[in-house]
Design brief:
DNA-binding, globular, mainly alpha
Amino acid sequence: MIRFNEVYETLNAKPGPQHWWPADDQFEVIVGAMLVQRTTWRNVELAIQRLKDAGMLQIEVLHRERVAAIQSRIKSAGFFRIKAARLKNLAAFIVGQGGITALSKRPTSELRSLLLQIDGVGPETADAILLYAFARPVVVVDAYLRRLASRLTASDEAVPDASLREWVATTIKGVSRLNAFHALVVEHGKSQCKKRPRCAQCKINALCQTGRAALDA
DNA sequence: CACCAGGGTGGTT
DNA sequence: AACCACCATGGT
């Protein structure tokens, strides 16, 4: 297995963005999680700000708002038609569940299956919401982590998600560490070479060099 | 001009 | 179960 604590330390040694998922409240985190799908955070920030300016970034308001009005505010985040419909539906779901406070009282596994019922919330978004909005100790498995893990294996083999979850969970303990770990993985992933199968050609290869030494037999 | 970004869904083999 | 097209704007 891969010892991700060494990966963590390696990535953490490099200076990077500090407070990673800035938001005023839990709902803003959840909205951001939906908007950031297949989009840059930069474009999501603009959309969130435009929602705020219109006073729409509140559950009850968004729940009542016209889809067309939501669309016009989030265009910068891309896929604005489906995302607008999903945001409105998301607000309706939260209202139907008795609000964020009520949801916060649910056990993690139960909350996860609830989130997965929401249209537009898949495994990754659900885990990001659990970790960043509800502060649950959850491993977020995304494309960056998969690629990183495959590069830490001897011949760039794909690592099953279940193994990734298990390995990260056993080496990265606690909400704050899991929080920082996912942030580090994403930040590193952005600058990591995607085309080469090996890390030798990458601009940032320090991680993969040390990372390979972190492999168990 | 092509390619990509902190995915998910629905349809086809 | 493994692909596939699609969603759409903004940056490089």
